[in-house]
């Protein structure tokens, strides 16, 4: 019997080149956008020829799509697995996770903001919306709380879009905030986090939540006599 020939994976140096190309493309797309970035610039950043880059990825559109897949996987890794009942603290922590991601992965956060603002033509042809799973998990948690009566009724989807947009814009504007306002960014992030917590909690809070909170803060009266 003929000996079976094992299938060979891609050589390690090819995989390393792919990763370096994706990392360089990620940074350039984030700073200059899809239209403002050329394959020549990506290949120069990696130290290979444009022909080699095309051989690896085929086209700028495919390279950009792979960068967006990296963005989606990065976001998915930050989505909290929620097993407990919906609560204000749980939803606050979910948004704080996105805030952490936006500063841990600033190039991806900047790219996400560009994609939200600049992709009107591409979105009509997109096979996958890379924010969908993240948004769906947030909306599902809020609607679960609304259904149980833990949260007040409002448009959960628009609230999630609004809050994620505010976080993304704050992260993308961080260098400008740092230079224009001359504030310590660590302090600014802490202040933003507190504001985020307050705003999310205020949006979710029902009258019952307020009454319960007021009762818990009111000191017990001493009995007379």
UniProtKB/TrEMBL annotation:
Domain HTH tetR-type: 15-75
Pfam family, one: TetR_N
Alphabetized UniProt keyword annotations: DNA-binding, Transcription, Transcription regulation
Residue ranges the UniProt entry marks as DNA-binding: 38-57
Keyword set includes Transcription regulation: yes
Molecular-function GO term, any one: DNA-binding transcription factor activity
Domain of life: Bacteria
The protein's name in its UniProt record: AcrR family transcriptional regulator
Organism: Afipia massiliensis
Lineage: Bacteria, Pseudomonadati, Pseudomonadota, Alphaproteobacteria, Hyphomicrobiales
């Amino acid at each position: 019997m003929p000996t079976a020939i094992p299938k060979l994976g891609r050589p390690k140096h090819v995989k390393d080149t792919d990763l370096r190309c994706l990392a360089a493309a990620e940074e350039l797309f984030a700073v200059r956008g899809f239209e403002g970035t050329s394959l020549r610039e990506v290949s120069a950043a990696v130290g290979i020829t444009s022909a080699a880059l095309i051989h690896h990825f085929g086209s700028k559109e495919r390279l950009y799509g792979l960068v967006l897949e990296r963005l989606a996987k990065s976001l998915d890794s930050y989505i909290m697995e929620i097993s407990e009942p919906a609560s204000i603290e749980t939803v606050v922590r979910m948004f704080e996770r996105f805030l952490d991601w936006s500063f841990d992965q600033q190039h991806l956060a900047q790219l996400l903001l560009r994609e939200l603002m600049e992709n009107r033509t591409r979105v009509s042809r997109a096979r996958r919306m890379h924010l969908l799973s993240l948004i769906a998990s947030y909306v599902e948690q809020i609607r679960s709380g609304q259904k149980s009566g833990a949260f007040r009724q409002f448009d959960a989807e628009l609230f999630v879009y609004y809050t994620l947009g505010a976080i993304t814009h704050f992260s993308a504007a961080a260098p400008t905030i740092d230079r224009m306002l001359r504030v310590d960014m660590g302090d600014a992030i802490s202040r933003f986090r507190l504001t985020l917590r307050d705003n999310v909690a205020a949006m979710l809070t029902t009258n019952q939540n307020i009454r319960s909170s007021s009762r818990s803060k009111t000191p017990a009266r001493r009995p007379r006599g």
